Amino acid sequence: MNDNQHLTMKDIARDLGVSVATVSRALSDSPSISRERRQAIQQYAREHNYFPNVIAEQLRHSKRNPSRAIGVIVPELVHYYFSSILDGIEAEASSRGYQIMVAKSNESYEREVEICEAMLKNKVCGIIVSQAKDTEKYDHFKRLVAAGVPLVFYDRICPALNASRVVVDDYMGTLNAVSHLIETGCQRIAFYGASMNMMIAKNRFNGYRDALYKHGMTLDESLVRICDNRADAERITPAMMRMENPPDAFFAVNDETAIGILTVVKRLGYIVPDEVSICGFTNGFRATVCDPMLTTVEQRGTQVGKEAADILISLVEGTLPADHAEKRIVKTRLVLRGTTRHP
Amino acid sequence: MNDNQHLTMKDIARDLGVSVATVSRALSDSPSISRERRQAIQQYAREHNYFPNVIAEQLRHSKRNPSRAIGVIVPELVHYYFSSILDGIEAEASSRGYQIMVAKSNESYEREVEICEAMLKNKVCGIIVSQAKDTEKYDHFKRLVAAGVPLVFYDRICPALNASRVVVDDYMGTLNAVSHLIETGCQRIAFYGASMNMMIAKNRFNGYRDALYKHGMTLDESLVRICDNRADAERITPAMMRMENPPDAFFAVNDETAIGILTVVKRLGYIVPDEVSICGFTNGFRATVCDPMLTTVEQRGTQVGKEAADILISLVEGTLPADHAEKRIVKTRLVLRGTTRHP
DNA sequence: TCGGATTACGCAAACGATTGCATTTAAATA
DNA sequence: TATTTAAATGCAATCGTTTGCGTAATCCGA
């Protein structure tokens, strides 16, 4: 044993007076080693707590076998949806014998580039990523595919790249939710969405719009706002309720925003859901904590994560052809609770 | 370039008619290579998008330099406190040039052992871990230290090992919180805690007990319950309130449990905080979502994560001696909100 | 013009494993 | 007993880097 370092095959070979090759074969149960020797070597290895050096193994195999580390880039960590996704990825990965290497982009383009660099250097076998908000150049992603590292996008996909992706069915999720509001008697439904340059925001808006049309209603621009967080919601909602013809329902792009609305609306003395209905999107921790509990669209982050990991691993293992762009859509589910009326 | 694989130094050397050694030195800006050659090689490398194979680098350096991957074991991922910790670890690690490898133990001993094995094989330079609930044997941890892999515990520490650790000041946090309840007029304060075989549970209970003593009150066993989740809280709280002398305040071991209490107490018609005060522990998402908002002890997961990563990296880099067991305590902070009266 | 100091490079041995091929040894066959 | 054959092992190259040491080539001053 060199220093206090790990025991290597060389050590075993020396101590037992055989060659390294023999040790290697014995430990991999090769039949070309005699039973006695094989057992002796295996026992010695066990007793001396030998375990192979993966670095060396990988170097040797780098031509044929990729590593078993999956890079995961998340915009945020302390976030219900993203930690659900991480959870799904971890579950799928570990059950198939992969490790995950996690990095947080903090929604920053520069950081995203750094991370890609680091992951490339660390020889991850593939990367699962949700693009940072301010990313508008894609060279770092292109370098990855050029280097033969499969890429799977989730949540915020890269429009410029025809890569594999898994997204949530934002359109149908919103359409169903807004339909529910209409069918329970809401007439003027406000929409709080994110900035429209993100696909996901656009899809949700379209779902909202089409739900109105489907029910013969018209779109009132004054009811549509860009607002995707609680602080903004608390700031702009009072003015909404002061309109001469205020909304009798709100659809918010996430639970956090919905909670902001709920807080204000309750403070103003409206009864939820009788006078004002509210629907969120996520179904995270918050949804069952507020009073009344929040009706919301379940986003199924864990499922998104699992699908993403499944695609990536299939790409890595060749079950899916390397140049294939697999696109999956995870169905949402409307969870009815106390902030909307029930039919 | 071999196949569609990565460009190696060997390729550069061949194409430029120099030796691999020269390429290596040129790329590392060694002064022993002439300027022209150095620049030519660097340019060629840049143009052909060369990047070093970290696997090989590491193998070469394995004697002296450890890897730069930190293993992190968390019991759960979709969990405010743990994701905060992960966030802190990620921040500290990435700012110091380390990657993190994350695995979820799911509170299972078997899984924990598997993970340790996998991480050992993957040559992480150290491991940050919160023990799973049902772990009672510690051989897997001992093997790690025997293999020279530094270990840092957080949250649930391993009592059998004198390892580095960072914990939250559960005792003082609880003592202060309960003191606050007393000082705002509460007389009968119930305590919902976790099973006492965990240090963290015991410390919080002691804080509760000592706060009572400090204020000249006595401990009423009928007010102490083992309960650390919402479902249980909703189940047992009605009975508590039906006691002939019901509590006028609750201290809960986490926010989730506190929310359960709040829900029941409100449903039973009590006014919070006037008739019943409630205090939680965590200060996660939930705390500002419920109505009234929750007074709670801020657990500062991000700080815990940062400290843990700092210790581990210091251990790895030798700033702290390898056999040193660094023990840090992160101070908590009482956050006053609507579920308790204010002085 | 020559010896010694630079300068600029190559050789080859590591790091820890795997594996095709050669070689030894023992057993089986003629 | 000589020869074939199978079983058991070793040799050495390989994966992509790094680095100590050796050695041409160049330069300097005397």
Notes on the protein architecture:
- The structure is a homodimer of 343-residue chains.
- Chain A is an alpha/beta fold.
- Chain A has three domains: 9-52, Orthogonal Bundle (434 Repressor (Amino-terminal Domain)); 69-167 and 301-330, Rossmann fold (3-Layer(aba) Sandwich), CATH 3.40.50; 170-300, Rossmann fold (3-Layer(aba) Sandwich), CATH 3.40.50.
- Chain A contains twelve helices and twelve strands.
- The first copy, chain A, has helices at 9-16, 20-27, 35-47, 54-61, 80-95, 109-121, 139-146, 170-183, 199-214, 230-242, 255-267, 301-317, and strands at 69-74, 99-104, 126-129, 151-154, 164-168, 189-193, 224-226, 249-252, 277-282, 295-298, 327-330, 333-335.
- In chain A, the strands form two sheets. In chain A, strands 2-1-3-4-5-11 form a six-stranded parallel sheet, with helices on both faces. A six-stranded mixed sheet of chain A has the order 7-6-8-9-10-12, with helices on both faces.
- In chain A, helix 1 crosses helix 2, helix 2 (20-27) crosses helix 3 (35-47) and helix 8 (170-183) packs parallel to helix 9 (199-214).
- The model of chain A has no long low-confidence stretch (mean pLDDT 93).
- The interface between A and B is large, with 56 and 57 residues.
- Strand 2 of chain A pairs antiparallel with strand 2 (99-104) of chain B, so a sheet runs across the interface.
- Chain A binds a DNA duplex (30 and 30 nucleotides) through residues 6, 8-10, 18-22, 24-25, 28, 31-34, 37, 52-53, 55-63.
